[in-house]
Amino acid sequence: MVDAEPEVVLGSFSSPGARATPWPSARKVIDEAEVFWLSTVRPDGRPHVTTLLAAWTLGGMCFTTGDQERKARNLDDNPRCVLTTGTNALTGVDVVIEGVASVVDERSELERAMADFERKYGTHLTSPEGTWYRLGEAVIAGDVRLYRVAPTVGFAFGKLSTFSQTRYTWQNR
Fold first, then answer.
1. CATH: 1.20.1280.170, 2.30.22.10, 2.160.20.10, 2.30.110.10. Which one for 7-169?
2. What is the pLDDT of residue 25?
3. 108: exposed, middle or buried (C-beta count within 10 Å: 0-12, 13-18, 19+)?
4. Closest residue by Cα to residue 95 from 18, 159, 161, 4
5. Which of 56, 58, 94, 105 has a CA positioned 20 to 30 A from the CA of residue 1?
6. CB-based contacts of 145: which residues, under 8 Å, 6+ apart?
7. CA–CA dist 98, 161 (Å, integer)
């Protein structure tokens, strides 16, 4: 799966003189972020938000979950979701990725994605003292689901001193 470059447009809610956040800069925020917020919709229409680990791999945002967790059950009913990360402050850049989630089940993709997760999160996944030790093995064995969110639209919100709203759009996803 090849990473497609999105179309990049500066939003109208940006400060005068603001510039669009280039996609490589938004990707850097994603690659360096440790925590993401996943928003899904329950079958009755109520929203659900939870924190999780995520990584850009396989050409989209990926995350893991058990098949009986609320987020998995929500995605079974409605695969559209949003992943958000950022600084949790009035400075820096926040990034939002919207898309459609699907379960990854091809072994080579599972192995590649989990290798990317282990590079990103290091000892949290690879050390016996790590909170998510052996997560990769559980994913590859099929005991934990790996989801890939194919991005459709994304946003980067630059904050102080110049506010910017950048929109990213992926074609043919």
1. 2.30.110.10
2. 97
3. exposed
4. 159
5. 94
6. 64, 65, 66, 67, 72, 103, 139
7. 26
